[in-house]
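Hello,

Our lab assistant flagged a job as stuck in the queue for most of the afternoon. It eventually completed. Since we weren't sure the result was trustworthy after the delay, we are filing this so someone can double-check. Below is the sequence as submitted and the structure that was eventually returned. Let us know if re-running is recommended.
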Amino acid sequence: MALATASGCLAAFLAMRYLRDQRMLMAAEPKAASVVVAARDLTVGTIVSAADVRVVRWPLHATPPGYLGTSEAVVGRGVITPVRTNEPLLEGKLAAKGAGGGLSVTIPEGMRAVSVKVDEVIGVAGFVVPGTRVDVVVTLNPRGNGESVTQVLLQNVPTLAAGASTQPDAQGKPQRVTVITLLVTPEHAEVLILAANEGRIQLALRNTLDLAMLAPRGVRAGSLLRAGQGNAPAGRSATQRPSVAPDRAVIEAYRGGVRTLIKF
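-- returned structure --
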């Protein structure tokens, strides 16, 4: 009887200790939230489906701002920035419900997308791809006897699409297309369309980290010839010829054995 009583007490003690430890573990476990993440890579313009996402547990203290907790909150919405596998689908990465997908949902409010015709030269050999930034340079040929002029028209313009693609190549390869779509303000859209119709535009690819806005003066055809004259030696005009002294007559004479040169 004593042995049975001792065994029962030991079992009760172990059970109470186990329950206490479990309560302590549950209390120590950090609180978590449900976060929707991408089940695969999602490109810009994709309409999210149920198969594109999954819901995971995320530490509550480390949840990203703007996270979404249910698949119903994201299904049917368009992706406006690229999303990688297992990346949370944040509110700022998705278009509003009912807005649809495609390129239009990526255009910020108050901006416009304008497409311009390009070739391998204008498109910088195909390296003007979505996500890059360019300067737009225009060359105008005035009617009549006016000089041709080239001027930087727009600076630091984002590229939205190359052809029908809104994503750059994963290996950074060029994309040879005939149309580039740029993101501009309504005022710059007018300038860009007029320049494309009245002259010839050229895209100048720039470093995406270079945000400097310069003020180039432009160049005229006549100034190209004058610029070449800057290589002339100092102190002498490019068209100036060295002067040559005229020939003078010299007569040699002797007087009293003394030689004399008489110049005329």
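-- support follow-up --
The delay was a queue issue, not a problem with the job. The result is valid. Strands lie at 32-38, 53-59, 112-117, 133-140, 149-162, 179-184, 200-206, 219-220, 250-255, 258-263. Confidence is low (pLDDT under 50) at residues 235-245.
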